[in-house]
Amino acid sequence: MAATASNDIEPVEADKPLTNAADNLPFVTGARAGMSEDEIALYDRQIRLWGMRAQEKLRSANVLLVTARALGNEVGKNLVLAGIGSLTVADHENVTEEDLGAQFLLATPSVSEVVPSDATPAQRHGADRAAAAAVVGTNRAVAVSQQLSAMNPRVKIAAEQRDVSTQPASYFQQFSLVIVTDRNPAVLNYINTATRLQNQPFYAASSYGFYGFIFADLIEHEFMITRDRGNIVSKPGARETRTRTIVNVQVEGEEGAAGVKESITKREVYSTWYLASDASPLPQSTRSVPRRLRNVTPLLACLRALWNFQENRGGKENFRMPNVNSATDRAEFIGLVSKKQAFLGTPPVAADKIREFLQSVESMREISPVTTVLGGQLAQDVINTIGHTQQPIQNLLIFDGTTMQSSVYAMHPEMSLGTAQLATAPNTTAPESASEATGGTMSAAVGRALAAGTAAEAAAGAPAPIPIAGSPIPLPTPPQASG
Predict the structure, then answer these.
(1) How far apart are alpha carbons 412 and 275 in whole angstroms?
(2) Residue 8 pLDDT greater than 70, yes or no
(3) How far from chain centre, in Å, is Cα 154?
(4) pLDDT digits over 271-282, tens only?
(5) How far apart are CA 454 and CA 209, in angstroms?
(6) Where are the alpha helices (DSSP H) in 198-320?
(7) Element (H, E) at 145
(8) Confidence band, pLDDT 50/70/90 cuts, at residue 127
(9) Contact 249, 263 (CB under 8 A)
(10) What is the DSSP string of 13-74?
(11) Most buried of 86, 332, 350, 384, CB within 10 angstroms?
(12) Where is this region: Disordered (predicted)?
């Protein structure tokens, strides 16, 4: 296969993504034409897995990763090693000593600080303390980005030290995909609404001790699978599920001959975080089969109760987690679990499961095996989405680290899905209809926030993004504070 070895980059405007005329799929700012022979050799095994075309799309993608805790570390590592085009790591928090326990991208000594093989235990301990002292108190995005850059110098890495939840919706336009980890429901709702306005794919994920989740809102996403043709003919326009439709079918080989293959393009439609996280019932295919209903993980009701509890603790309480030692918190949380379980129609959640869940989530403990598995699942789904290969998560994955099982549920309201959820909102004259269609995010207050961001917070001494490797990814100027 012919390859272009040039690494020159033509500057383009950050808010005008390039377009690949071959397949009419969006390419990002700074994309280079073709892959060099060195790159093909470097990524040979994964090219064999998902193909050259998917690898080129991955190489051209510009991803935003919000929050660089343990889960973000895993996602960032996997995307960088896979050969993502550029990655912006956004985190406004500083590194603490607690972060060093599970976040492997922190406190790594430089080559000159590596102790010799015959070092004494005291010398090794001193080197560890020196490495920790060098990173504690620094910005988390900067610290993580330095190590990500060392993992794969071909990937452009930038560190964003501002809280992106204070930025206007237009901020997210420069990215081809946005991933938000370990943030509260209000932030997820805001950023998901912003990415919807920019027609950008959105992922959310969090780990809570032994438990975690992944949520995807890809709005309307097409992907292609190639397989041997079976006895049942796939037809364009056929609906496989409520969310999945066959868009196109291409047959390779002569009809009736052995080894005939078909390439099927399918489209999945999605709902917003706001609607999927609380207002949506289980899919009809689950509700209508008692055995399936009984097998729904109790974590679904627990997670919905947790998000509801956090929403009730906004403002001064900063969306805090329930305190397992507080009788008031326990009673409220148990009541919320019961309410969510009744809405879903699933069996009551056992008291010991609620207690285990509360103990796990209270301090947001980071357990490396859990974040490793969850981060790997999320990164692989992002790769599939960017490459338009394989069926993506639809749309909520729940991970139980006590059983090492992942359960996926298509959580959607009884209304139009995909672009219709947001596109119809501005045209309606009934406020309640607009609120329902957008998950309540088009209220006047949130509408102003989407237009201008929380200007006072964003402009108050916010540092500019720091380029870590290669050319910096241009970011919009923070909005000016208004009187």
Answers:
(1) 7
(2) no
(3) 22
(4) 999 999 998 999
(5) 31
(6) 273-274, 284-287, 290-294, 299-311
(7) helix 140-151
(8) confident
(9) yes
(10) -TTS--EETTTTEE--TTPPSS--HHHHHHTHHHHHHH-HHHHHHHHH-EEEEE--SHHHHH
(11) 86
(12) 463-483
Return the structure tokens found at 189: 């709702």
Treating both helix axes as pointing N-terminal to C-terminal, what angle do 351-361 and 327-344 enclose, rounded to 10 degrees? 120
Q: What is the mean pLDDT of the chain?
A: 78
Answer whether 387's CB lies under 8 Å from 50's CB: yes
How far apart are alpha carbons 387 and 223 in whole angstroms? 8
- Asked if the peptide bond before residue 395 counts as cis, ω within 30 degrees of 0, the response is yes
346-378 residue pLDDT tens = 999 999 999 999 999 876 678 889 999 999 999
Contact 323, 422 (CB under 8 A): no
Residues linked to residue 400 through DSSP beta bridges, in sequence order: 211, 405
Residue pLDDT, tens place only, 131-146: 667 788 889 999 899 8
Residue 36 CA, distance from chain mean position: 29
Report d(CA 114, CA 128) in Å as an integer.
Answer: 10
Question: What does the angle CA 238 – CA 241 – CA 247 come to, to the nearest 5 degrees?
Answer: 35
Closest CA to 401 of 376, 431, 370, 432: 370
Dist CA 133 CA 479 (whole Å): 35
Coil, strand, or helix at residue 397? Answer: strand
Cα 441 to Cα 157, 186, 463: the distances in Å are: 32, 10, 28
Residue ranges and CATH numbers for the domains of the chain are 1-93+139-219+270-288+366-483 (3.40.50.720), 220-269 (no CATH), 289-361 (no CATH)
Q: What percent of the chain has pLDDT over 70?
A: 72
pTM (2 d.p.): 0.78
Supply 392's token pair.
């993506």
Cα–Cα distances in angstroms (integers) from residue 156 to residues 31, 75, 153, 236, 480, in the given order: 11, 16, 7, 39, 28
Both tokens of residue 96?
């603490």
Contact yes or no for 300/409 (Cβ under 8 A): yes
What is the enclosing helix (H) or strand (E) of 469?
A: strand 466-469
Amino acid at 339: K
Query: Both ends of the chain: CA-CA distance in Å?
Result: 59
Distances in Å between the alpha carbon of 330 and those of 69, 300, 305, 322? 27, 18, 11, 7
